[in-house]
């Protein structure tokens, strides 16, 4: 019987640099603090899951570099007894991201070195030896080799997801946010072989060509329903979930759900790196445990909120019981009720 979650795809080291105001081009600003953490979807999701439930089996499928950063990743994951590293391959240079965190407005800007992620392909997946119930792959548009065209399935990632489902796994994807026009070409093939699609409102809008924010940056709820419906019709077999700062929205083919985000004082937010992955981890945990979409969205909402309480991507994420209590007891964002 399959159990647990396998997380595959982007893994890197985040070099977090805190500045008090982002400089204009050619200007200088002072780095107030610097910190290193494990980043990328593989780190963010797997560590969040490990914090949610330290007994949940987690398998990692990724390339670590043959360098100091690769060793840093290996040692970091090794601290968790429920994370299986047996499928990790060491090759090339470890990807890293300079995360510039603006202490003034709590935003972050990323400068990424792709390293060995450009060669991460279907050969990294020993499908017959993966024991997980769910295979989560992220991020679409950032996995160069898997985003390559496949004559039969559309992309190599789509073929991989198809083969994973044939092996008896459920599949899940997340997408990276980028300001390019590749979404409508690369996302639909993967959706055909996806059980759970978990994306933010920007990625959903770009993937469906539906405008999800209107005047004054207001979320367009009716359009979000259209986007959920369209992504489901493009092949997602179980759940489509769209999360935004104000609220999250889900569709299982029968019911639409809207849940407000938790209200957190701005002064309590230490960082937003990995909040989307913490949200995805909550959805994956609920799906693995057989929870309803509605209950899973509650866990995901609290998971994302708790991740904001620390600078890195996952150390703020709480255990499952605490997350349930957080969603039930914490104040909700008032603007979510105005949507």
TrEMBL record:
Protein name in the entry: Carbohydrate kinase family protein
PANTHER family, alphabetized: RIBOKINASE (PTHR10584:SF166), SUGAR KINASE (PTHR10584)
GO CC terms: cytosol
Record keywords: Kinase, Transferase
Domain (Carbohydrate kinase PfkB) ranges: 5-315
Pfam families: PfkB
A GO molecular-function descriptor: kinase activity
InterPro entries hit by this protein: PfkB_dom (IPR011611), Ribokinase-like (IPR029056)
């Amino acid at each position: 019987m399959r159990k647990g979650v396998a997380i595959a795809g982007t893994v890197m080291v985040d070099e977090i640099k805190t500045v008090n105001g982002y400089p204009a081009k050619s200007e200088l600003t002072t780095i107030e603090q610097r910190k290193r953490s494990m980043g990328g979807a593989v780190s963010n999701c797997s560590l969040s899951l490990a914090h949610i439930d330290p007994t949940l089996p987690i398998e990692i499928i990724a390339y670590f570099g043959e360098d100091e950063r690769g060793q840093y990743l290996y040692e970091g994951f090794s601290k968790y007894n429920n994370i299986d590293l047996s499928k990790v391959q060491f090759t090339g240079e470890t990807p890293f991201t300079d995360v510039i965190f603006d202490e003034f407005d709590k935003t972050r800007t990323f400068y990424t070195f792709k390293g060995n992620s450009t060669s991460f392909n279907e050969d990294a997946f020993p499908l017959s030896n993966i024991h997980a119930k769910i295979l989560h792959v992220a991020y679409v548009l950032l996995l160069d080799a898997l985003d390559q065209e496949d004559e039969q399935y559309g992309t190599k990632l789509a073929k991989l997801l198809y083969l994973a489902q044939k092996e008896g796994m459920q599949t899940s994807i997340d997408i990276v946010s980028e300001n390019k026009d590749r979404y409508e070409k690369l996302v639909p093939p993967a959706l055909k072989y996806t059980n759970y699609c978990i994306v933010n409102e920007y990625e959903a809008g770009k993937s469906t060509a539906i405008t999800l924010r209107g005047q004054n940056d207001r979320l367009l709820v009716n359009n979000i329903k259209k986007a959920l419906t369209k992504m489901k019709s493009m092949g997602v077999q179980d759940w489509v979930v769209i999360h935004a700062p104000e609220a999250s929205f889900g569709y299982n083919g029968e019911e639409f759900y809207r849940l407000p985000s938790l209200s957190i004082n701005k002064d309590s937010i230490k960082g937003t790196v990995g909040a989307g992955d913490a949200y995805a981890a909550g959805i994956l945990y609920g799906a693995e445990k057989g929870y309803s979409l509605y209950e899973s969205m509650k866990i995901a909402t609290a998971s994302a909120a708790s991740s904001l309480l620390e600078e890195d991507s996952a150390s703020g994420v709480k255990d499952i019981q605490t997350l349930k209590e957080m969603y039930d007891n914490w104040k909700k964002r008032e603007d979510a009720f105005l949507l």
